[in-house]
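Task 17 of the worksheet. Students: predict the tertiary structure of the chain below and write it out as structure tokens. Keep your answer in the requested format; marks are given for formatting as well as content.
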Amino acid sequence: MQISYKDNILPTATEMAYVFKDSGLKRPVDDLPRIQKMIDHADLIVTAWHNEALVGVARCVTDFSYCCYLSDLAVLSKYQKLGIGKRLVELVQSTIGEQVALILLSAPDAMDYYPHIGFNEIKNGFIIPRKN
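Model answer:
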């Protein structure tokens, strides 16, 4: 299976919402204007494509100097366990460079996944959760 990775093609809100929903990532998938804002205001989006279909996405907010927040990492369910998520993270790291920390908040179901692809768990952190 040939997967192509791109950082110069933005997905549509509909494509991204579909990947979020199918992957199990909890995002406002029924609010396409909000998904579009998520796309428009991201600093870095790396995508994975099988032919013309979006199969994976890594969406980041970063200063490209000190820190990068990997706000979304999602892969269509039938494409999971093929190394696509790991490759998306590698491409993000390649783009941001070694001086930039890559940070994320994990969904509870994915806590075992991130150490597998090179992340270290951290204990120091705080959150003011969104209201909706």
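Marker's comment: The mean pLDDT is 93. Residues 67 and 101 are 5 Å apart (CA to CA).
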